[in-house]
Design goal:
- The protein is an alpha/beta fold.
- The protein has one domain (7-153): Protein tyrosine phosphatase superfamily (Protein-Tyrosine Phosphatase, Chain A).
- The chain has helices spanning 19-31, 50-61, 78-96, 110-122, 127-137, 145-153, and strands at 7-9, 15-17, 34-39, 64-67, 100-104.
- The strands form two sheets. Strands 4-3-5 form a three-stranded parallel β-sheet, sandwiched between helices. Strands 1-2 form a two-stranded antiparallel ribbon.
Length: 158
């Protein structure tokens, strides 16, 4: 779980991308065993060109990007869920092969925590246990009641 790589805030409150920080973050993800990086942020939330910068940095680091936007503080919508089975098959195969799967939203807590917990549930963990485990690593994870309620209502598909 991570915040969007290289996303910084200037003293005037405007957001910008620090290309060096982005490159270092994607390189660190790769060194930690990640080959797949799931982006949960909506493009319009970020400074212009952020996704293009990330595609370059991820490619340079050997990461495959998968864009699966979720509205901030919300839960996956129908479009996400329609694409989920194929992504889940890829994630599961990578985890079985000992890889790490990276995920990012804007801050690295809400949507990233949601996806981390969802992945644990898909592997058979009880929802409350998955939420607790994710929060034991980042107590701000799964930021909204909507996200927590969604997670506790789902059952594993595998």
């Amino acid at each position: 779980m991570a915040g969007f790589p290289g996303l910084e805030t200037s003293v005037d409150g405007s957001a910008y991308i620090d290309a060096e920080a982005m490159a270092l973050t994607t390189q660190k993800m790769a060194k930690l065993g990640a080959k797949l990086f799931v982006i949960l942020t909506e493009e319009q939330e970020l400074p212009e060109g952020s996704f293009a910068f990330l595609q370059q940095a991820a490619g340079d680091s050997g990461l495959t990007l998968h864009f699966m936007p979720i509205v901030d503080f919300e839960v996956p919508r129908a479009e996400f869920m329609a694409k989920w089975p194929a992504l889940w098959a890829d994630i599961r195969a990578r985890l079985v092969n000992g890889e790490t799967v990276a995920c990012s939203c804007q801050y690295g807590a809400g949507r990233s925590g949601l996806l981390a917990a969802f992945t644990l549930i898909e592997q058979g963990m009880e929802p409350q246990d998955a939420i607790a485990l994710v929060r034991s690593h980042f107590d701000e994870a799964i930021e909204s009641t909507m996200q927590e309620d969604w997670l506790t209502s789902i059952k594993a598909t595998s």
